[in-house]
């Protein structure tokens, strides 16, 4: 009752640079401490403790000697008090210790390990200093990263259109996936860590199986780049509700296994049901009756509202509320040349023409 809801707890105005991302440390958050990280367009990262009213906080990469490019994301490591990651538009990912200083000299690095499309360096120093590690991932900006629910794996999406999943502590590449074309902009894990969903400049949401290392579905529904994806953490999976994902009777529709949402630059927010028949399709008996083509549609597309499959896995269409016409969504998928649509809306930088199938490095299975 003593709080004034008309006034913010803390307000800061920055000149010469803009905040681009932030993250609270949920592991240490309480009445005594509320640790906040803020990334900036000029490359700095600020540490604040709002519970202690520390007005100045600590500034990392203050002189921009570590990286001069925009911070695309900052994240505390899961269940840690001091360690955090910061990704940059340079394509680099840095591991920081919030209690260690950034020396006022350019860091020198030594190569620790490398693999297909990535290298990891440690900082040469007689005394501990930031950054502790430097990752060079892909080519072009590193747009987003996300830890798996168990905190062991790290998924990164880059402007080169590649999803890379690493075992974080061992710095080993566990799997890869390419976009249909263009850069990947966002990434999220399913609550059980079995699937990764991405979105990007191909207007698609792509579901990738971590265990199988392959694309299981691509969703068509957006008319422009997909900026954000997020799973619903409260949807029960078949193993949780005791079912098999196919209802009580053989003719019942499949039950919902996962749900996630996606937001795009077309101002649309799409909701998706990822059901067991998509994740593990069962063969259907051949049909003797030939369906008539839908008037007004090309014959090759008359039985489906999806584009031809670019790289394996079934198609998905967004869930449509009863008040909306499904035909409105169906027209969004009937594009024979999606590249031309993008050129009207945006100019693409790095375009990958990969087929969308999974690429796995030698010996890079989930158990590796």
Q: What features would you describe in this structure?
A:
This protein is mainly β. Among the domains are: 8-137, no CATH class; 142-239 and 253-281, YVTN repeat-like/Quinoprotein amine dehydrogenase (Methylamine Dehydrogenase, Chain H, 7 Propeller), CATH 2.130.10. The chain contains four helices and 23 strands. It has helices at 238-241, 276-279, 326-330, 338-345, and strands spanning 19-24, 35-40, 45-49, 58-60, 71-76, 83-88, 92-97, 108-115, 118-124, 133-137, 142-147, 153-158, 162-167, 172-178, 184-189, 195-200, 204-209, 214-220, 226-231, 256-264, 269-275, 315-316, 358-359. The chain has a six-stranded antiparallel β-sheet, with no helix packed on it. The chain has a five-stranded antiparallel β-sheet with strand order 11-12-13-14-23, with no helix packed on it. β3 (45-49) and β4 (58-60) form a beta hairpin. The longest helix has 8 residues, at 338-345. Residues 289-312 and 320-368 have low confidence and may be disordered.
